[in-house]
């Protein structure tokens, strides 16, 4: 028996004897205020901008042209594309497409200029985008290693008000990634450094249907 087996065995025995957990009161507000769908999207956009994400609004039919402009402005020569991304989002003739492969190393992903994904949901009150590894989002690491991430959010359908509202809509067994702006941190003197554990540039495209 290994040390790991002994430790896990002790944990199992301790849990068997544990007192049932007391029910935790959840009397906090699930949402702060009432909003129309349009107000919810406006709040999401405002908080994304506060986090230094670059926010763009467009309609479904104009999305391919906008994505092409964002990639061109970035000077992207390669773009990582999840397998379930709608093909018409990135028409032919743009940057070289890189597939989302399990065998890709971090060094290979670091050489990719941009990545385009969809999302699972977005939270207006916190300016947070949630990815769950769905077909249009790909593996978690493809949004953590390349330096430029373009994330498409369908509005208002994929926008909820608050974290308490979004949690029941997510599958906890999926690899959830919560993104609030570009990757950044601050040292003890509050000097902001971007690109620490993810992309330095986050473009969020809010796509409406009308």
TrEMBL record:
Residues 109-207 form the LUD domain. InterPro entries: FTHF_cligase-like_sf (IPR024185), LUD_dom (IPR003741), NagB/RpiA_transferase-like (IPR037171). It comes from the Bacteria. Gene3D superfamilies: NagB/RpiA/CoA transferase-like. Pfam families: LUD_dom. This is LUD domain-containing protein. It comes from Streptomyces nojiriensis.
